[in-house]
Amino acid sequence: MALVTLEGVGKTYRGRTGAWEAVRDFTLDLAEGEFFCLLGTSGCGKTTVLNMVAGFEQPTAGRILLDGRPVDRPGADRGVVFQGHDSLYDWLTALDNIAFGLRLRGMGRGERRAKAEHYLKMVGLTGQGAKHPSELSGGMKQRIQIARALANDPRILLMDEPFGALDAMTRAVLQGELSRIWAETRKTVLFITHDIEEAVALATRVGVMKRGPGGTLKAVIPIDLPFPRERTSDAFMAAFREVHALIHDEIHGAH
Amino acid sequence: MRTDRLAVVAGYVAGFALLFLIWHLAATLLVKSVLFPPPLPVLERAIVLIEDNILQEQIVASMRRILQGFLIGSAIGIPIGLAIGSFRIVRWLLEPWTEFFRFIPAVAMITVAVIWFGIGEESKVFLIAYTTVFVVIISTAAGVGAVGRDKIRAAQCLGASRLQVFALVALPATVPYILTGMRLAMANAFVTIVAAELVASNDGLGKLLWDARLFMQIEDIFVALVALGLLGFATDRVFRLLIRAFAGRFNATV
Ligand SMILES: Nc1ncnc2c1ncn2[C@@H]1O[C@H](COP(=O)(O)OP(=O)(O)OP(=O)(O)O)[C@@H](O)[C@H]1O
Ligand SMILES: [Mg+2]
Q: What are the tens digits of pLDDT across the range A50-92?
């Protein structure tokens, strides 16, 4: 059975400017342990899909299941890494941020500290746990966000362009680290991006979205390349071209 | 860090020294009037007033009223501000109140306060509490409204209950706003206490000012003015330190 199921999911926003169908008839099964990249142009509805899976927003059509149960609100079984880093708590240290979910569950101080240290190490920030978010770089903040989500041991990790605001070099480093962490933990990931190379480097499957209104899944391409991925290899280039061809039509309006 | 702090302190000392120097020059070279004494006679007068324990008594009287009213006003204002920021119904109900009363300044309420509470402590404490409460309510409510959406969502998908979101996210995120409101309120409290003591009081810095005017003791007036400035400066420093401590680095909780 799929871990997450989206069945004919649709979302229509109604506001002052009238109704806007952001997502239409979106159907997808996410299997346990896969790394699924949702790729699409700006405004095609990627964030809307992720927000519905996270439970921040309700679908106006279809349904979303997690382990066969309908999703209707945010919960600890779905960890989210946000695009910006406003989601970190400025008044807590990096370590306390990572331990936040454990604290909510009433885990003892010593135990959650040890666990947080473990994840701090996993994201490569050993020794930096006492710093506050204001003392961390953008890349470090995203590492903390990832560690915070992982420390809570969710069933699935939802990531909305987590590296979108970083410079190209930091982004490449963090992509490598995320790939390594995923290989270690085999956590199911739904990862949103509009960067083709990022998708091909990270994903076991890439889903390409069609432009809105009524954004929906256009094609799903498995990327059967071994990890760690060699970005200059012919196989990587071939996969890149395949995805690029699909996205190209979206960017330039052909259907 | 260390040298920074030293530089700041040195800057303040130099700044104050300059202020007193300009005062001295203005009084001795420009104005040359008994109505504008230079700093030295004022200082001498201050020492006399301190030796006679008069200045301390007035300061204690004024500061006690300020602190009492300020604490009462904050204790009432913070929870109301939190409720207004958290629940739309409370906002709809109470916003007309706050928007109405905040335009009636405390000095305008002095007459009513004296009629209701007499010229004793109660009227002053009431006025300070009154001037504090609305400022604190408004900035606390604004703080709750300004908590980032992602901060709340992050807590929700880490498993936080509504109560946990409030206590562990909304509240700490609002603390800097609460402190900022209290800081503004403290400045208002100084205005209010002097006005209230000028109009009706048996002691306090405002009374000192009033008596000095009656008996044309010009140095006393300046002693009271300088004391107000220094007290206000010191209290404001305390708030700035608190705000900085909460705004980011120094506090840890796990
Ligand atoms: N709250 C909302 N109310 C009305 N319309 C919305 C709302 N949120 C999103 N939309 C619209 O839905 C569409 C999809 O938005 P969404 O944020 O999902 O796009 P996206 O694919 O994540 O884009 P990007 O890559 O730029 O983040 C857009 O046209 C947007 O204007
Ligand atoms: Mg988006």
A: 999 999 999 999 999 999 999 999 999 999 999 887 899 999 9
Segment holding A8, helix H or strand E: strand A4-15
Best mutation target, A47, A100, A146, A148, to test chain B (most B CBs within 10 A): A100
- Phi, psi (degrees; rounded to nearest 5) at B172: -60, -35
Nearest CA distance, A226 vs chain B (angstrom): 32
pTM of the model: 0.84
Phi, psi of A98 (to 5 degrees): -65, -35
Tokens standing for residue A200: 């091909």
Yes or no, beta carbons of A79 and B158 under 8 Å apart: yes
A86 touches chain B (CB under 8 A): yes
Which residue is listed with tokens 């860090």? Answer: B1
* Nearest CA distance, A120 vs chain B (angstrom): 15
- Beta partners for A29? A5
Q: Compute how many other C-beta atoms are within 10 angstroms of the C-beta atom of residue B201.
A: 25
**A40–B contact, CB cutoff 8 A:** no
Within 8 A by CB and 6+ apart from A233, the residues are A225
- Let me know: does B125 contact B201? Beta carbons within 8 Å: no
Whether the per-residue pLDDT at B253 is higher than 50: the answer is no
Tally of residues, chain B: 254
- In the predicted structure, residue A236 carries a pLDDT above the cut 80: yes
Instruction: Tell me the pairing of strands A18-30 and A216-222.
Output: unpaired
Instruction: Count Cβ atoms below 10 Å from residue A134 Cβ, excluding itself.
Output: 11
- pLDDT over 90 at A25, yes or no: yes
The closest alpha carbon to A164, from A249, A46, A59, belongs to: A46
Partner-chain contact B157 A73, CB within 8 Å = no
A40 ligand 1 Cβ < 6 A: yes
Cα→Cα distances A200→A81, A139, A196, Å: 20, 21, 6
In the reported structure, the alpha carbon of residue A26 is separated from the centroid of ligand 1 by a whole-number distance in angstroms of 15
**Residues, chain A:** 255
Mean pLDDT of B91-105: 91
Find the closest chain A residue to B247 by CA distance.
A91
- Please report where in the chains the tokens 């790394």 appear, as a residue: A35
Fill in the amino acid letter for A244.
H
Token match 């362009």: residue? A161
**Residues 6+ away with beta carbon under 8 Å from A84:** A165, B150
Find the CB nearest A91 among B150, B155, B172. B172
pLDDT computed for residue A205 by the predictor: 96
Contact A105 B151 (CB under 8 A): no
**Residue having the nearest C-alpha atom to atom 17 of ligand 1:** A47
